[in-house]
Every structure is written in structure tokens, then in C-alpha cells.
Amino acid sequence: MGSKYFKILLFSFICSLLIGNCHLGFAQKSTIDSLKTAYQNATHDTTKAKLLVELSEHIYLLNPDSVIPFCQRAIEIIEINLPNEQVDISHVSPEEESSFLLAKARALNNIGFIHQQQGDIKKGLEYYFESVKIYKKYLAENLDEETFLKKEKIFKKCLTDAYINIGFIYNNQGEIEKGLEYYYLSLKIKEEIKDKKGLAESYNNIGAIYHDQGEIDKALEFYYLSLKILEEIKDKKGLAGSYNNIGTVYHNQGEIEMALEYYFMSLKIKEEIKDKKGIANSYHNIGGVLGKLDSLDEGMKYLELGLELEKELGHKSWIAVCYSSIGGWQLKLGQVELALKSGLETLALAKEIGIVDYVKAAAGLLSDVYKKQSKFEDALAMYELEVQMQDSIVNEDNQKQLIRQEMKYEYEKEQIRKEHEAKEQLRIINEQLSRRDNLHYSAIFIGILILFGGILMLGFVKIKPNEVKGIIFISFLILFEFVLVLADPHIEQYTGGAPGYKLLFNAGIAGFMFPLHQFFERKLKKRISNAQRKKINKMMEQYKKDVEEL
Fold first, then answer.
1. Are the CB atoms for 66 and 56 separated by under 8 Å?
2. Does a structural domain hold residue 470?
3. Fewer CB in a 10 Å sphere around the end CB: N or C, the chain?
4. Is 422 within the bounds of a domain?
């Protein structure tokens, strides 16, 4: 992307901020304005790249289409400054390089998230994995210890976020085991860096997966682990969510009174922290539970309180859910006209926001209402709409199944590629080791030949018998060690590494070499003795000649 195009994008971004500021809270507007000013005043590429990534993350709710261009521009700045063959980057310090890498990984992660939100799961995963590759490479290869220690925790924390995104995709696509695998990877790193809040979130995510799979005991185990940490760090918002999750498990299990207890605990904290969205959700849950306890009037009060809050917040999808729930209970109470009104409100909202499940629920409610009113044509029409929505859901499930199969194929292809690369790398390493070992063996063998050649020459040198014994002992000890080195792989193969069996093999080799050692020692001693005797005889003969001459 050229700089001219980027300026146009930046200008459109500023304009969109001015238009959309009325929809943002003061804090969000203030953050974006300060980031925008900081970017305009930035002179260093490291700062520019980081600010662009942060801008992309804050603008998401206002204008998601701007996220990818800003992240791509950040990546362009980063790649100019990262090591490559074309550009001299000697001016970039290890600290700056790590900052560039972190910004690039975050940018890739953000691009992946946008593709995921747009329904392009395959592309989303590609960017997530590219992001993960940068984090893992930095953590594995960074040699500048001082910079590494500063950045290690940040990189690991960002890596856990990427793992959670990948796990969420796999879980959402029905690849439950792979989803759990990435959640557990995230959990392991959070344990390493002692990120207690992150641990609580991971426990909660894993618990939710087990809950969806019907493994209630495992779900409760992880929810309670999350709850324990949240109580320890006194995270009220997290506690409220944890109580709500546990209440949901008990609710689905039919343990209504336990569910109600946890829902009320959640509501109490949400009221303390003034979390209106959470309060509305708690009202909805409590109303549904009270209805099952035959306290319909009390339950309706909570459902209506929840509806009023959702209207105040403007959450259309939850307004539709509230109307649907209220309509169902109104029909049970015999309030048919009120149920009809609730059903029509649900249907209108569901069509407006385009959520198939909500349209199906509204059509089912209206079909039952029209039957009560003996409006059979209208009931049939709503029933047909309900069936149509059900077919649409089935088609959507089939589409997800096709996506899952495609993801599985891509994953298996990637695994085969990785296995092939690993085998090739292992083959190269084995060849290098084999060449090294052969060189060492050859050098040792030549050294031993020279050593024993020297021993054989001892007969021509004046040396004491005790010294002969020492030289031969050391020479055979070296030979014994060399034989052990050669034989060790074969011994390992036959013994399976059992120490007792290896000792027996080594003792056998020593037993074989002992008579050889004795033989060499006798021969060499005899040879030295003969040589010395000859010298003495020669000296005696010379002495006799000298005496005779005298």
C-alpha cells in the first residue's frame, strides 16, 4: 500500500471518527483521539507501527473495515526495519527489533480476527498461525538475554491470546479436541507466567467446552477452579460471570434451587459494579428459573425487568430473546393476547437482525398462539416458517460440516508437510553425525596403531620391566575404551539399556582382552630381556677382548 493511499485511509479514518464519536463513550473517544495525535507526532518507525496496531484495535467497533488496511500499513513499516538481504538494519537495536516483531504478530492476529468475523475461517486461521509462528520463533531463538527477559512475558501473554482465538475457531467448527488442545496450550503458558486472571479465563473457557459436550463434572471442576482464583484476586466482574456459569450448569441439570442461588450471587455483584448488561442477563436467568419453580408471577417480574434494561441498552438480539421468553410464559398463564404481542415483537426484531434461530423461536411461539385462537391458517403459516428456518439451520450446519472437513484436510496436509520436513532435517543431522563419528573413529584407530607401533619399538630402547607393565596397561585400557565406544550402540540394541546386561557385555569384552594383554606383556618383557641380555653379552665380550689385549 503506497503512502498516498495510506494518507487517504488516514483521512477517512479521522472523518469516520468525527461522524461516529457520538456513538462512542467519552473514554473510548479520548483514547482514539490521543492515539491519532500520537501517530501524527511520531518520528520513529517503532512508535508508528505500534500506534497503527493500537488504532486498528480501538477502531474495530466503529469501522471494522479499517482494521486490515491499518494493520497492513503497520506490517509494511515493520518489514522495512526487520533483518533482510536488501536493507541494512544495523541501526535497529535488539529492543527495537523485538518491538517490531511483537507489533507485527499483533497486526497479523488482528487481521485474522477480522477474517474470522467475516466468516472466512480458513484465512483467519492462516493469519493466526502466522502470528503464533512469530511469537514462538522469538521465544525459541532470541539470543539477547537482557531484551528477552524484558519481553518474554509480553510475548507469552500475546501467544496465549492467539491460542485462544485458534481454539475458539476449532471449537466453533465442531473440532472439540483440537479446540481443547489450544485452550490447554494457552493454560500452560499462563501457569508459567503466573497470569492469575488469564488462568481464571482459561479455566472458564475449558469449562464451557466440557459443558457444551455434556461432561458436567469436568465443566464444574474447571468452573470452580476459575472461581477460586477470581475470589483470590478479588475480580468482581469475573466472579459474577463465574457464578452465572455455575448457575447455568445446575439449571441445565435440573437442580433449580442451586441454580437460583448462584444466579442471585451473580446478580448481587453485578449490581455492586453497575454492570447493566450483566444485570439484564441475570434477570432473564432468574425469571426463567422462578417460572420452573411455579413462581410464574415472580418470574415474569424479573423477565420484564430484564426486558426494560435491554431496551435501555438497545441490544436488539437480547430484546428478542426476552420477548420470546416472556411470550412463552404468558401463553402458559393463559394470557394469549399478551403472548401474541410478544411473539410479533420477537418476529419483527428477529427478521430485522437476521438471526435464523430467533425467527424460528418466534414462529414456533406464534404458531402455538394462533392455535389457541383457532386461527389455523395463520398457525399453519407460522409452522411453515418454523420448518423453513429449521431447514436453514440444517443447511448452515451442513456448511459448517464442509468447512470442518476442509479445515481437517488442510490441517492433515500441514501435518504431513511438517513430518516430511522433520524427517529430512533428522536425516541431515544423522548424516552430519555419521561423518563426524567416522572421522573420530578413524583418528582414534590411527592413534591406537601408532601407540602399539611405539610399544613394539620398546625392545630397542632401554626401559625397566615395571615401566613396560605400565605402558602396556595404559595402551590396553585405551583400546578397551575404544572397543566399548564402537560396541555401545549394538550393546544398547540387544540389552535395551538395562544396566545389568550392559555390565555383563562390558565384562565379557574385558575378559576377552585380558589374555591378550597378558600375552603382549609376556612377549614384550621377553623381547626386552633378550635385547638387554644381548647388550650385556656384547659388553662382556668386549670386556674380555680388552682384558686379553692388556
1. yes
2. yes
3. C
4. no
Would you state the pLDDT for residue 251? 87
* DSSP 8-state secondary structure symbol assigned to residue 193: T
Compute the distance between CA of residue 111 and CA of residue 162 in angstroms, rounded to an integer.
12
Taking 50 as the pLDDT cut, the residues of the chain under it are 1-26, 85-89, 398, 402, 409
What is the reported pLDDT for 29? Answer: 61
Q: What integer pLDDT is reported at residue 80 of this predicted model?
A: 79
Q: Which three cell numbers stand for residue 139?
A: 521465544
Q: What is the DSSP string of 392-444?
A: HHHHHHHHHHHHHHHHHHHHHHHHHHHHHHHHHHHHHHHHHHHHHHHHHHHHH
Find the helix packing angle between 94-117 and 45-59, rounded to 10°.
20
Cβ atoms of 77 and 45 closer than 8 Å = yes
Distance separating alpha carbons of residues 178 and 512, to the nearest angstrom:
57
* Displacement of CA 296 from its chain's centroid (Å): 46
| Overall pTM > 0.70 | no
DSSP calls for 476-491: HHHHHHHHHHHHHHHH
Whether 364 is in a domain gets the answer no
Q: Which residues contact 427 (CB under 8 A, 6 or more apart)?
A: none
- Cα–Cα dist 402/518, whole Å: 78
Look at residue 531 and tell me if it is in a domain. yes
**CA gap 236, 242 in Å, rounded:** 10
Burial class (CB in 10 A: 0-12, 13-18, 19+), 151: buried
> Number of folded domains in the chain?
1
Q: What are phi and psi of 69, to 5 degrees?
A: -60, -40
Domain that holds residue 512: 461-549
